Amino acid sequence: MAIDSVQVQSNTDRYGNSYTSSVANDKLTNNDFLKLMLTELQMQDPTKPMDTQSMLQSQMQMSAIETNLQTIETMKALQHSFAQGALAQSANLIGHIVENGEFGENGMIKEFYVNSIESVDGDIMLSVGRVLGYDSDNGEFIISSEQEYVNFNNITRITKL
């Protein structure tokens, strides 16, 4: 028997009652289950009724699974929304000097000039150039042309220019 692409296998017990022994489909919904239950109730022998308690228990399990799937989808949408908010918030760092708590070869905390922001595998990454020094003659930072990436979550200090 197939209902909406749901594969159902039935067996017969020692009293001649037909029962469902397996259901195969990841997309089984409550409506599909109700159709199956009603079909089984219509086809049962009235003198040998089946165990409705186990059917109701199965229905409750299906309902819980469907609720869990809906919760997962809602959480994914919420996670995406938070990621977009973090990306927008981190965009304010473009043109700023940031630190990530790491020390350079000279023993000083590394400073980076933020060029751009991007999302990489769910992490907000800052595309940065390392601050090599400060030119006091023209009042500008000397920035390495070599681009590096700093994880937004590792930022320990932000300096506005």
Q: Overview of this structure, please?
A:
- The protein has 161 residues and is an alpha+beta fold.
- It has 2 domains: 87 residues, no CATH class; 69 residues, SH3 type barrels (Roll), CATH 2.30.30.
- It is built from 2 helices and 8 strands; from the N terminus they run E-E-E-H-H-E-E-E-E-E.
- The radius of gyration is 31 Å and the shape is rod-shaped.
What is the percentage of strand-forming residues? 35-45%
Largest sheet: 5 strands, antiparallel
Calculate Rg over CA atoms. 31 Å
Number of helices: 2
Instruction: Indicate the low-confidence ranges by residue numbers.
Output: none
Structure in a nutshell:
With 161 residues, the protein is an alpha+beta fold. It has helices at residues 30-43, 52-90, and strands at 2-3, 6-12, 18-24, 97-103, 109-120, 123-135, 140-151, 157-159.
